[in-house]
Queue: 2 jobs
Job 1
Amino acid sequence: MTSGKTLALTLLGAKGRWRMWEFALWLVAIAATFLLPSQLLILTEVAILALFAVSLDLILGYAGIVSLGHTAFFGLGAYAAGILARDYVTEPVTGLVFAGLVSGLFGLATSFLVLRGSDLTRLMTTFGVAMLLAELGNQMAWLTGGADGLSGISMSPILGLFEFDLWGRNGYIYCLAVLIVLTFIARRIVNSPFGLSLMAIKRNPRRAAMLGISPKRRIVVIYAISAAYAGMAGALLTQTTSFVSPDVLAFHRSADVLLVLVIGGAGYLYGGIFGAIIFTLLRDWLSVATPQYWMFWIGLILVAIVMIGRERLTGWPALLARSLRGKSEPAGKETP
Amino acid sequence: MLTILFDGVAYGMLLFILACGLSITLGLMNFVNLAHGAFAMAGGYVTVILMNRFGISFYWCLPAAFFVTALIGAALEVTLYRRLYRASHLDQVLFSIGLVFMAISAADYFMGGQQQLINLPAELRGRFDLFGIGIGRSRLFVIVICAMLTVALQLALTRTRFGSQLRAAVDDGRVARGLGISVSTIFVLTFALGSGLAGLGGALGADMLGLDPNFPLKFLIYFMIVVTVGGTSSITGPFVAALLLGVADVAGKYYLPQAGAFIIYAVMILVLIVRPNGLFSREGR
């Protein structure tokens, strides 16, 4: 009994151990502050999108919930941070926490929608919630600025110390710091017994329930956490751009973030981050190459990814490891 | 009041014709095809091009729209869709969103981003009074056509050999294949029929719904509501759902313009909370 327990703990620890490339990734991201001073605005965009994708990964990659309306939480957080900054408190970290709370609570309130029904019902309810919010944002012009967007936001320095500068340097550092902290927390969550139980639910909910894991409560919790993450990503967007456009609730954002996660691969957290880097560079390049029709190429990429097979594209770390091992194995066989 | 009801029915009938193809692919073939609206848009653009560039009569454009979109649908089914019947829903969603994006950009590239206008024939314009109800001629035309199509479709699915082969192929593809039914041919034909009907709906609705490159996304939610609320086990469910949605939407826009589409989404979510498999579904499917 005890040995089984310690074995499980060791396995859990091995899974949560830090890899070299993780450190390397964060070091590169921090070094970019100094190495690419002219690209900081786009890097900020990457960091925000990465956080948004990480939040989607929590529910899609770990709990297996396909959402077509994840931008509901992103947009809600963006508006919450914007309204708070315009009317009450202009300090960004307060706004970030506030947006996270608002979106998290909304996620908690709507989580029961994804508990029932098939994939299709979930798709429709998440999609419907996002459309509902978009419609609300559009109609409640007195609060949200309607179709013109929410303007007149001026942020005060972060924690009263660091001013948002024109080059986006502090903005980038701020977003990166938030991304790092939240990714660390997400890492702790998914590598905990709770995270493992989520993956069990994703594989086979009925079996998980028989093993004594209650799917409902766990899905509600992870859905709320994911919503809070998305809300904070939205808040970062508001704070770094000092503007909320009604576009934050648009359908294409939900589709974009799905694409980001699919490019990077779902189910290991960093997929969102790699995906965000690739997607942003790609979109930037496409929108320069074909300003009006970049959507066509994004669509083509989506179709191509599905036709080729997601596993083949995103399984490259595993494939790489296998091919390395495959190279070493024949050599080992030849020696005896 | 009755005029609103009439307009709502016309709108609902149109939604049904647009969405019934989706209810077949989604409900019977279990494929989440978010690109359904793109077929409807294709039908609309076929009509616009034929009428405005070649001066062909509106009545000839309707069958043309049907056949052209059916052909596009069949071609896509053979080349792409077929491979994804067994794929996960996430793959299907990603694939069809990709198609929608491509369709939107392509329409924008070839036709421009502006709203397309068509000139209906003179006999379809204007209104006449019948027992004090103002009846739009084009709306009446839409209702008549859609009602005929609905009856034909219902008969085709329940009474013909093709209909029973389709139901067999969907219920258990392997056994159907064993009985000598060519399942893949049936699926191509069904997909083509669904796309063609969407195209026909797009052509009929080009005047009523408007037509611009964003059409597939703008009406996607309506199609999905019709199918999810109506349930996917028969075509009666989507038909009733489409009528309800049409009347509710028109009445809502007339009486409560501020609420916009809000009511529709709220009602859909409520229905899905109470009955996750749709209003008129058989239990356990």
Note: Chain A touches chain B through 43 residues (CB under 8 Å).
Job 2
Amino acid sequence: MFGLNKKDSVLFVLVLFLTMCAPFLLNPFPQGSELAQFNAGYPDLMQRFVIFGIFAIGFNILFGLTGYLSFGHAAFLGVGSYAGVWMMKLLTMNVIPAIMISVIVAGLFSVLVGYVSLRRSGIYFSILTLAFAQMSFSLAYSVLTPITNGETGLQLNLDDPRILGVSEVNGSIPPPNLFGLSLRDSAEMTFGNWVFTFNTGYYMCAVLMLIAFYISIRIFRSPFGMMLRAVKSNQQRLNYTGLNTKPYTLAAFVISGMYAGLAGGLMVAMDPLAGAERMQWTASGEVVLMTILGGAGTLIGPVLGASFIKYCENIFSKINDNILHQWFAFMPDGIEDVIVFLVHPFVGKGWHLTLGLMFMLVVIFLPGGLVEGGQRIGRLFRRRKPDAASDASQTKPAE
Amino acid sequence: MGLLEVKNVNKRFGGLQALGDVNLSVAENTVHAIIGPNGAGKSTLLNVLVGKLIPDTGSVIFDGQSVLGRKPHEINQMGISRVFQTPEIFGDLTVLENVLIPCFARRDGSFKLHAFETVMHEREIVDMAEQMLTDVHMIEKRNLQASTLSRGDKRRLEMAMCLVQQPKLLLLDEPTAGMARADTNNTIDLLKEIKATRPITMAIIEHDMHVVFSLAERITVLAQGTPLVEDAPENIKGHPKVQEAYLGQSHE
């Protein structure tokens, strides 16, 4: 299908199904029930799943294939965001130009950063990218205030020109739209106690993520992708085989920078606001965590990792002491307080502690990430089956 | 005029004269061995030939063009392939992929952004790689990960990766270093087979005399960075200068 082999087609259709049915799949618990807080089927969070999915897919093209660990990819996301907001200020609230310019500007910026950083490899490359990202962050925060609006962040105003659109509608800023279709519109479907929300913005992001995912599969299976894996495996041999590794790594760097720009553009399409903190090193670190947690170098890993982290971030950070007391209410008072006291640091504001622990567990026990976990479970089942068959054959003679 | 002409090459590392006035001519379609005791400058010479080191003076002309100042990938594109002392292969890739990469390098040059084609759809390249693996008797191992191969098979794979490029000159850096006698003989047989089935020029750096005398048609003896003699194998064995270089002061 579309030039993919059977295995990749299955994977693609699976991701297609998951993204298109996400409003159902992420809302398994009825409204008002105690478990409803574990639902993730609301537009804001679903959008973040797919946007960070795109970011991580792109990061994986660089890190998963070539092994070059960039610690500054958030800079491209941030640059893309600023460029996108400017398009919405100057041109129109239609998000298409904003998204396009985000990808282009992030791509150009990554040519510059990549050209300099790729002069070194290993830890020095990581440090160079980190330095670039922190420089971008500082510039956006202070020096470039006329462009970035510094601390406050770049926002839309009522008096923005928007020469191809309108500056205001009934005294307020018009919502971002896709050829007139407001991205904030949602259709709701009620089914008993369940409410499913279908948001225009989410579906636009999801379609773009599917395209991004498809392109990444094609890159993985292409001669170019093979060369990138060869860079990771043995750069010396590649040089002595007549291949110039520099343009290959630079191309991978720029492609992943453009993915980051696309993610940044989509963020502002969903919420037209860009702040410098988007470029900070913690944001760069987050995409590294997502990719490694999901499984670097695998196709589906980054998407899983991104969804997993964003889900945990939302759910764990929402849990507070009141909720904990409700959960452990069945216990005797003294013990309940102790348990709540022990769990407290891991939830709410302390959810990063949980994330850190999970990350350590994954890196130590599942170096291949969640994907490896899935494969191990799969193998366990496959091994069980012949066992069951041999058990059956063994019982026969006994009869 | 040989395929490879090394003229008056000097290379100094601080106080050490690693190469002193090296002159060497490798004729087309011959196997030329460069031998010499440890520290004779064999590896330095090889590194000059592949562009890893730039000599202080002198010239290295390959096929009418200078190789000096060119990067390793450019020199490979000129038609020089290199086999390393310890096999350098792509350990994380499959055996077939290892051979596909040089095929792409030969067809598409040192860089091509072929990001939207599929490797396995490039029929002619895949056929070429599979034919090469058949020639070196490794076709049944094509889907194995290269790092899982035995040392002998890794060497075989590396040779296949070089040969599939149809190089004008194949450089071999101690291809049997650290090998057991049986593996050494296998490698000699493989090289003889290669030599018999296709026109090829080889330059071998080696200190195992058994290998050298089984393969070489022409031998240059290096000692302390300078060529002592260059001659046919039968004249090298009894040459007094060679015995002196290898065994120290000759007993007269």
Note: Strands of chain B lie at 4-13, 16-26, 31-35, 57-62, 65-66, 80-83, 169-173, 201-205, 218-223, 226-231.
